[in-house]
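Thread amino acids onto this structure.
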């Protein structure tokens, strides 16, 4: 192993939870460094399913410390609910195993209200957010008026920050969105009531990482969402509000960029997207429905049906450039079984020309036409395969062609949701 960053190569939901769970067995700690409970990471062990939104996907391994870094936006209610659900199943979620950076920003009720009100109001473009208050919380962080987890130990500061924030928010909520204003004393009181349960989890994440590293243990950095939902490099404005790329693993957890030795890209064998925004290889026909049903492509966070399409190697190559991927994990390969043909998008046609890169002008990705290569499908089940050589020839060819097109080795192949349904290539 090595200090490893795991990044979704597409628009999220690539199956990172299973891979983090698998790799974290060999690690001292798993760190979440961006996003919040807009994420939904699913892990299946012996038919038991665990869906995590905030707590790192290493929590099922009892010797792995789970850290929530400064780059995460934390909804305190969701955090405690998630702790309770895991504790009910006998999983140790005490502060010995789980800790949160004092510098992580808190999602409060007004962030969620503003998020939902904006989407409902249809002023401007509808992004199709998860409605979890992610964007408004990051806005406050950048505007330097946010509340941080460490403020929970300072009631006077907390009270003053909430009073100040609501002066502005209540005007917005009342005047523009025609909603009732929020009482600052109620928000403060509710938060202070939670503080005794939350404060034992607060920590100096950088110091904990340093300790674990000094003990000779490797650390895993768990990305949420996907590369093309990145606020700078994604399909703006149809993106999330944080940097989802590997560079932010350093900023969002407080380690230098030189800390990482492996940067793993997780990509489905096809593509999905939730919410609005361009999606060149989207399938609006029976093949799209087939992928959705066979792949159970419904959101773990919101239950929304995911849009489905062919694998797009233009977007995978863009990910390699920005993230420096060392290897790729390909997930859900089994879902492609029984499709008569398999298509891979190798380039786009844009403005009458062939192009190998994503055009950068806003909205341009909606105007490209995918250029496909085709190969025959496969009928044999692959969910029981344990080595690359056991896969049908067409599937091996598919994998090798993707490696050629993207220029990075596919090191792990997932052929089912269970831990054991994973092929690790030498
Ligand atoms: P937000 O992150 O809730 O602000 O939503 C912004 C966009 O990112 C929407 O299109 C969401 O559907 C999408 N999104 C956010 N988190 C995830 C995720 O974990 N998986 C897939 N899409 C996501």
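Threaded sequence (426 positions):
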């Amino acid at each position: 192993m090595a200090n490893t960053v795991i990044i979704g190569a597409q628009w999220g939901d690539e199956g990172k939870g299973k891979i983090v769970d698998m790799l974290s067995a060999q690690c001292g700690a798993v760190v979440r460094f961006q996003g919040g409970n807009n994420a939904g990471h699913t892990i299946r062990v012996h038919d038991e399913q665990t869906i995590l939104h905030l707590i790192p996907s290493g929590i099922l391994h009892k010797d792995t410390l789970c850290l929530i870094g400064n780059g995460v936006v934390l909804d305190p209610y969701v955090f405690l609910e998630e702790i309770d659900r895991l504790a009910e199943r006998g999983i140790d979620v005490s502060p010995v195993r789980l800790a949160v950076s004092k510098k992580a920003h808190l999602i409060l009720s007004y962030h969620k209200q503003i998020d939902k009100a904006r989407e409902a109001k249809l002023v401007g473009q509808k992004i199709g957010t998860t409605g979890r208050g992610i964007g408004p919380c990051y806005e406050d962080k950048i505007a330097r008026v946010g509340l941080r987890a460490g403020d929970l130990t300072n009631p006077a500061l907390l009270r003053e920050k909430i009073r100040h924030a609501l002066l502005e928010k209540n005007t917005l909520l009342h005047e523009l969105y025609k909603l009732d204003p929020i009482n600052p004393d109620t928000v403060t009181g509710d938060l202070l009531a939670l503080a005794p349960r939350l404060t034992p989890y607060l920590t100096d994440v950088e110091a904990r990482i340093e300790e674990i590293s000094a003990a000779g243990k490797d650390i895993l950095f768990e990305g949420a969402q996907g590369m093309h939902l990145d606020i700078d490099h994604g399909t703006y404005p149809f993106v999330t509000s944080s940097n989802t790329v590997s560079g932010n693993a350093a900023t969002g957890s407080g380690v230098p960029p030189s800390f990482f030795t492996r940067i793993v890209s997780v990509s489905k064998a096809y593509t999905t997207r939730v919410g609005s925004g361009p999606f060149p290889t989207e399938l609006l026909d029976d093949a799209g429905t087939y992928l959705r049903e066979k792949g159970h492509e419904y959101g773990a966070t919101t239950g929304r049906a995911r849009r489905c399409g062919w694998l797009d190697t233009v977007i995978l190559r863009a990910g390699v450039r920005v993230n420096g991927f060392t290897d790729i994990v390909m997930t859900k390969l089994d879902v492609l079984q029984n499709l008569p043909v398999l298509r891979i998008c190798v380039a786009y046609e844009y403005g009458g020309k062939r192009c190998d890169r994503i055009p950068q002008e806003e909205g341009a990705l909606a105007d490209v036409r995918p250029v496909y290569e085709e190969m025959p499908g496969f009928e044999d089940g692959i969910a029981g395969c344990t080595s690359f050589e056991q896969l049908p020839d067409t599937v091996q060819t598919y994998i090798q062609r993707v490696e050629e097109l993207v220029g990075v080795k596919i090191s792990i192949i997932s052929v089912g949701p269970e831990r054991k349904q994973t092929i690790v290539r030498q």
